[in-house]
Amino acid sequence: MHCLDRCAENRPIAAKRVDATRTALILLAAGALALTGCAPTPLPTYEAVRGEAQAAMQRVVDELPAGLEVAKNPSDNPFGCSGDGVFYTGQWTIDTPESFDGQAFVDGLPAALGEDFLVEETRLELSYPAVSFIATGYANSTVDVSVLTRDEGIVVDILSTSRCAQRPATEAPQRLTPHP
C-alpha cells in the first residue's frame, strides 16, 4: 500500500491535533449559533403590535391642531398573516375645520415626524393629499395619511398596519347581525 503523505498513519501528530481542534471549533460554533441567532424568534403578542401601531397613529394625530376629535374605527378583529400569525389594522378619522390646509399638512408631516418615520414611495397618482410611512420607531408599522373631502367636510384619514403577531388569547367572535 502506497498512501505516503495522504494516509493518516504517515501524518505528523501535530497535524492530527490541528484537525481535531478545527473539528471541535466548528462544532462549538455551530452549537452556539443554534442556541442564539439561528433559533426562531417567537412572534410578539397581538396586544403589543396593536399598541405599536396605535402609538404611531397617535404620533400623526399629535401634529394636528389641538382639540380635534378622533373617531377610532371600533373594529379590532385581527387579520391573518404568515403561518398562524395575525396583524392589526387600525383606522382613525379626524374632522378638521374648513380652514385646514390638507396639502400643507401632508407636505410638512415627514419633517415633523422625524427619523422614526420613513416616507414610502407609492407610485400612485392620487387626486388628494396623501403620504405613506414605514414607522421605524414603532416596529415598522405602516402608516398611511390621507386628507379627504367628504360631504361633512375635510377629514384626515389615518390607516396603520402592524407587523405579524401571535393570535390573541381571546379573539372576539365576528358576529353577523340579521336583517329584519
What are the SSEs and their pairings?
Blueprint: H1 13-35, H2 46-61, E1 70-72, E2 79-80, E3 86-87, E4 89-95, H3 102-113, E5 118-119, E6 130-135, E7 141-150, E8 153-161
Antiparallel strand pairs: 1-4, 2-3, 4-8, 5-6, 6-7, 7-8
Q: Mind explaining what this structure looks like?
A:
This protein is 28% helix and 23% strand. The protein has helices at residues 13-35, 46-61, 102-113, and strands spanning 70-72, 79-80, 86-87, 89-95, 118-119, 130-135, 141-150, 153-161. Strands 1-4-8-7-6-5 form a six-stranded antiparallel β-sheet, with helices on one face. Strands 2-3 form a two-stranded antiparallel ribbon. The protein has three helices and eight strands; from the N terminus they run H-H-E-E-E-E-H-E-E-E-E. The protein has two domains: 10-35; 46-161. The chain is globular. A hairpin with a 5-residue loop joins strand 2 and strand 3 (86-87). With 180 residues, the chain is α+β, with helices and mostly antiparallel strands.
